[in-house]
Design a protein that fits this description.
three-stranded mixed β-sheet, three-stranded antiparallel β-sheet, 2 helices, flat
Length: about 170
C-alpha cells in the first residue's frame, strides 16, 4: 500500500524566519463510493453485493442512532466513533450558565484502532500498518486505476507512521 505525497510550503513563517516545506498527501483516482466498497467487500466474502450494501446501510443507521444516544461506537479492528459538540466562542463565566443553546455544531470524531507492541515506542494505528510513501511525480488530475497499488511496488521513504505526513502544516486541526 503506497501513499503518495508532494512538497507543500507552509504559509506560516517558522521561528528562524523561513517558510518550511512539508509532505502533503495526494489523492489519486476516483473517490471510492459505497457502491464500490460493497462490490470490493463482496469479492472478498461469500456475500452478494446487495447483501453487503444492506449491511452498510444498516451499519450507518445503527451508528447514527447510537451516536445520537450519547454512545461511543467501537468497531474492533477499525476504530471508534464518537460525537463532539462545538461551542467555539460561546463560553460562559459560570458552570450553572452552560446550556444546549451554546452548541453551534456537532461532528463525528473517528479514532483508528491502535495496537501496542513491546518492540515499538507508543501505539501503532492498525489502519496504517504496512504503509509505504512515494513522492508524487504525476499531476493532480491524473487518471489512475481504481485497484489498490501492489504493496510490493514502489515506495521510497519509510513505512508505518500515523498519517502525519498528510497533515496540513497551516491547519491547526491537522
Amino acid at each position: 500500500m503506497t501513499l503518495f505525497y508532494k512538497p507543500r510550503q507552509s504559509n506560516i513563517v517558522s521561528k528562524d524566519g523561513v517558510k518550511k516545506w512539508h509532505p502533503r498527501l495526494v489523492k489519486v483516482g476516483k473517490v471510492i463510493d459505497t457502491q464500490k466498497v460493497g462490490e470490493l467487500i463482496a469479492e472478498k466474502a461469500s456475500l452478494t453485493p446487495g447483501d453487503v450494501h444492506n449491511v452498510i446501510r444498516n451499519l450507518m443507521s445503527v451508528l447514527r442512532e447510537q451516536l445520537l444516544n450519547s454512545r461511543t461506537v467501537r468497531l474492533d479492528g477499525l476504530g471508534s466513533f464518537t460525537i463532539l459538540a462545538n461551542a467555539s466562542g460561546r463560553g460562559v463565566n459560570k458552570a450553572d450558565d452552560v446550556s444546549a443553546s451554546q452548541i453551534g455544531a456537532l461532528r463525528v470524531q473517528f479514532t483508528p484502532t491502535s495496537t501496542r507492541s513491546p518492540s515499538t515506542r507508543g501505539a501503532t494505528r492498525a489502519l496504517f500498518s504496512g504503509v509505504e510513501y512515494q513522492r508524487w511525480t504525476g499531476t493532480e488530475d491524473a487518471e489512475t486505476p481504481d485497484e489498490p497499488v501492489d504493496p510490493g511496488t514502489g515506495g521510497t521513504g519509510g513505512t508505518g507512521g500515523t498519517g502525519g505526513a498528510g497533515e496540513d502544516p497551516d491547519d491547526p486541526n491537522g
